């Protein structure tokens, strides 16, 4: 259990801190719009877009951040090429751009993953993956 918690801590903190746009994303891609309902207006929501090779292992293909307004955050990934992707995100309530954890390794801040599958331990690719074609996609991810 300690290994799972440490893996989750390292993966989420490292990946979101390093979130950046990838040069391989083409201008011919589509848009993914993610709505995240939240009760708290504090802080921001930080999200990352991954493919299977990078999911929870390497820097994301794209990263984005949104303020919380009217009970929700709206995040947009642009120029996303057709393919299979997964999204992870967290509520950066204190604005430090790092997912915070308790001393025992449990997250202090809420987090979510595409398809809204929440298991004990880090998110899994098979649960988070979704297909992107040429049409824009709208998702809601709950925390």
Overall outline: globular
- CATH superfamily membership, which one? Immunoglobulins
Which sheet architecture does the biggest sheet show?
8 strands, mixed
Whole-angstrom Rg: 14 Å
CATH class: Mainly Beta
What's the number of domains?
1
**What is the annotated CATH architecture?**
Sandwich
Q: Span between N and C termini?
A: 22 Å
At the fold tier of CATH, the topology name is Immunoglobulin-like
- Please count the beta strands (DSSP E, at least 2 residues each): 8
How would you state the average pLDDT, rounded? 85
Beta-strand proportion: 35-45%
Helicity level: 10-25%
Q: Number of helical runs? A: 2
Give structural notes.
This protein has 143 residues and is mostly beta strands. Helix content is 14%, strand content 36%. The radius of gyration is 14 Å and the shape is globular. It has a single domain, classed as Immunoglobulin-like. Strands 1, 2, 3, 4, 5, 6, 7 and 8 form an 8-stranded mixed β-sheet that branches. Strand 3 and strand 4 form a beta hairpin. It contains 2 helices and 8 strands.
Give the topology, please.
Elements: H1 2-17, E1 30-37, E2 44-50, E3 62-69, E4 72-80, E5 83-92, E6 111-113, H2 125-128, E7 130-132, E8 137-140
Parallel strand pairs: 1-8
Antiparallel strand pairs: 1-4, 2-3, 2-5, 3-4, 5-6, 5-7
Key traits:
globular, eight-stranded mixed sheet, 36% strand, mainly beta, 2 helices, Immunoglobulin-like, 143 residues, disordered N terminus
What can be said about this structure in brief?
With 143 residues, the protein is mainly β. Helices cover 14% and strands 36% of the residues. It has a single domain (2-140), classed as Immunoglobulin-like, CATH 2.60.40.10.
């Amino acid at each position: 259990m300690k290994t799972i918690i440490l893996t989750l801590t390292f993966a989420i903190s490292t990946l979101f801190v390093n979130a950046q746009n990838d040069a391989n994303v083409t201008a011919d891609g589509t848009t993914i719009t993610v709505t995240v309902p939240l009760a708290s207006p504090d802080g921001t929501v930080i999200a990352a877009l991954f493919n299977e090779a990078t999911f929870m292992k390497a820097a994301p293909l794209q990263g984005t951040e949104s303020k919380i307004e009217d009970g929700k955050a709206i995040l947009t990934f642009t120029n996303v090429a057709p393919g299979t992707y997964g999204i992870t995100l967290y509520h950066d309530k204190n604005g430090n751009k790092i997912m915070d954890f308790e001393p025992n390794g449990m997250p202090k801040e809420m987090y979510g993953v595409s398809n809204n599958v929440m298991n004990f331990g880090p998110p899994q690719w098979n649960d988070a993956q979704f297909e992107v074609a040429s049409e824009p996609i709208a998702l809601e991810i709950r925390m």
